[in-house]
Write a structure and sequence with these properties.
single chain, Beta Polymerase, domain 2, Rossmann fold, 3 domains, six-stranded parallel beta sheet, 15 helices, 10 strands, 13% strand, NADP binding, EC 1.2.1.70, Glutamyl-tRNA reductase, GluRdtase_dimer_dom_sf, NADP
Amino acid sequence: MIGIIGLSHKSAPVNIREKFALNQDDSAKLAKLICHNKYIQELVILSTCNRTELYFKADECCSSGAFNIIISFLHKHVGVDDELNKHFYRYAHDKAVNHLFRVVSSLESMVLGEYQIVSQIKEAFNQAEQNGTVGKVLTRLFHKALETGKLVRSNTKMSTGAFSVSYAAVEKCNNQFKNLKDKNILLIGAGETGELVIKNLYKKGCKNITVTNRTITKAEELAKRYSGKTLPYNQMMEGIHEAEIIVSSIATKEPIFNAATVKPHLNGHPLVMMIDLGVPRNIHHDVADIPGIALVNVDDLEEVVSGNQEKKQALVSVAEEIIAEKVGEFSDWLNSRNLSPAIQQIIASMNMVNTTELELFKKFHSDEDYQQMEKYGKHITEKLINSMIKNLKTISDNGRQTEYIKVVNDLFSQINEQ
């Protein structure tokens, strides 16, 4: 079976999502642990600011059993108990495939048409390849997903005027300040999200931009592209003293500052916007209690982007038709792959039984009787084979319930060995 277990901005707020946010090292360790389980053959972990999802292939195990294996490993890895299970969704078979195709097509994103999810999925799959946790099935699945996403974008223009979370952050600033161009801006983090923020600020005419990052060379490269300046990461608080807009988007397990550490460095600006695009959150929520500070996290930006979504809703039905067709194509391939060995076992076994019995019959009967029995035996064998294949497809949900296929394979392999 193919399954997915995960949570997203639709099922869990940021204070829950951040508990399950996984960096590359976390993902690699967890994936290898899970794949040591004999029932889980393949695994890809996708972890972004808006979702953490585990895509897997399991054999010789029912859906509920596979889900329990995955969630128990995940909970143990992040150190939480079962009470957070209510935030997770679980999909199996075609529903899991459909979900991935929707995700890569940005239909499940906070922002319809945003393109960042494509690079995030590519990165998650590439990491799984490096970790050795993918095989033929998930490789085919993710290649088909990326193909589907590309087809959706080219046929719906879904990404035209895409309204990213980073752009929404800039719009939030634009709504708060009359003279955005004149504001001093501190960007903490030089990754993809950080660059999207500075790019959109630059388009708004902002020139007073400072970039700080753990790796100073990355900060310098980013600042140079947009006529900004850099600040060493260990001097961040000096940047906070000057800034009226602070945007943070770095990977961290704990907040990089809180109310106690920020207060001494504020210089009396009537309003300071702090936009936290990190999951886990970069800025402790108690900063919002400081007078004159407006703190915004990724979930707060949803209201900004919602107004731009309505005009794209008409494109969703077109996208869903494309996705449904591609899910069908993948399902046909997978079912054929799953059922083919069992079907071959059935055919070989029944033909072997028929041949053996005919040879025995021939020893004690005339050639005429043998020819009649040969015709009848062929007729009965074909009828039994067709009936067994039909029942196999029914009981295995047309190849989706692989645990039943395994039983048939084992049963008929025993017959062939006799």
